[in-house]
Write a structure and sequence with these properties.
Length: 300
């Protein structure tokens, strides 16, 4: 089928390629004309604006948005709302907050435009491995767009999980779990690295991929990383977050659901960004004050 793709970055560009490989026709738009030119070179129909993209689609139009969450997504949806018609479908495949997706669905419905929120997991490997898709929205809109989802997803990697907002809610929790898994691998391999033994970390990560209860795709990726840089000397220990972990913890608080692992893994990411910890300085100062415990100064 024919669809519009807004956003041709690492995810959107690869998704455009996978869709075309699956026989779909993609009309591509990105504010960066070089990205549009690259997609056109790969077989997509380029467009110079959202209006130009919409003009090249036939009703009922389907437009997939793959841009960063927040204001960019907000602006794109508002503009599309003024360009699309009753019966058209907008799919937000980015990492938008689920409450925003519920609101976007309500906004678009006022003009008869249907909205789907598609939680998308797969990263840069999605082009070859497929994207796990968790889709929220009404049944009719999902049925219209299902051929697109079926092409993007690997076998058994697609589910219509509920009404509007449910797709991004499920993806949010998925990422909260991911935070905890990454933290556990990080802690475990640091313990191995600092032990009294001269352990071969790539070898250990390698054997754990087979038969071990902790085997996973993340472990396979860690094996690849350690094979290239066994001590990870080329990587700075600064870990960013894109929002989903915070939203997962907030949802747990709102729902009175204990989630200490998700919360702690999020706070550990914050800690990774500090050159120095004022909290640690405070503790050191207090220990010195009440117990005379030695402190380290910049001079010492």
């Amino acid at each position: 089928m024919k669809l519009g793709m807004v956003g041709l970055g690492r995810m959107g560009g690869n998704m455009t390629t996978r869709l075309q490989q699956g026989g779909h026709e993609v009309v591509a738009f990105d504010p960066n004309p070089d990205a549009v030119a690259l997609a056109a070179k790969d077989g997509a129909t380029g467009s110079s604006s959202l209006e130009d993209m919409v003009s090249k689609l036939e009703a009922p139009r389907v437009v997939w948005i793959m841009v960063p969450s927040g204001q960019i997504t907000e602006d794109t949806i508002v503009e599309l709302g003024g360009l699309l018609s009753e019966g058209d479908v907008v799919i937000d495949g980015g990492n938008s907050r689920w409450t925003d997706s519920k609101r976007h669905a309500e906004q678009m419905a006022k003009g008869g435009i249907r909205f789907l929120d598609a939680g998308t997991s797969g990263g840069v490997w999605g082009l070859t491995e497929g994207y796990c898709l968790m889709v929220g929205g009404d049944d009719d809109a999902y049925a219209l767009a299902e051929p697109i989802f079926a092409t993007l997803a690997p076998p058994n990697g697609l589910a219509h999980v509920g009404p509007s907002g449910a797709g991004h809610y499920v993806k949010m929790v998925h990422n909260g779990i991911e935070y905890g898994m990454l933290a556990a691998y990080g802690e475990g391999f640091e313990i191995l690295e600092t032990s009294e033994y001269d352990l071969n970390l790539p070898e250990i990560a390698g054997i754990w991929r087979y038969g071990s209860v902790v085997r996973s795709w993340l472990l396979e990726l860690l094996f690849d990383a350690l094979s290239k840089d066994p001590k990870l000397e080329k990587i700075e220990g600064y870990v960013d977050d894109s929002g989903e972990g915070r939203w997962t913890v907030q949802a747990a608080i709102d729902q009175n659901t204990p989630a200490p692992i998700a919360a702690l893994s999020l706070f550990m990411r914050f800690a990774s960004r500090q050159d120095e910890s004022f909290s640690a300085k405070t503790i050191a100062a207090l220990r010195n004050e009440f117990g005379g415990h030695p402190i380290k100064t910049e001079e010492s």
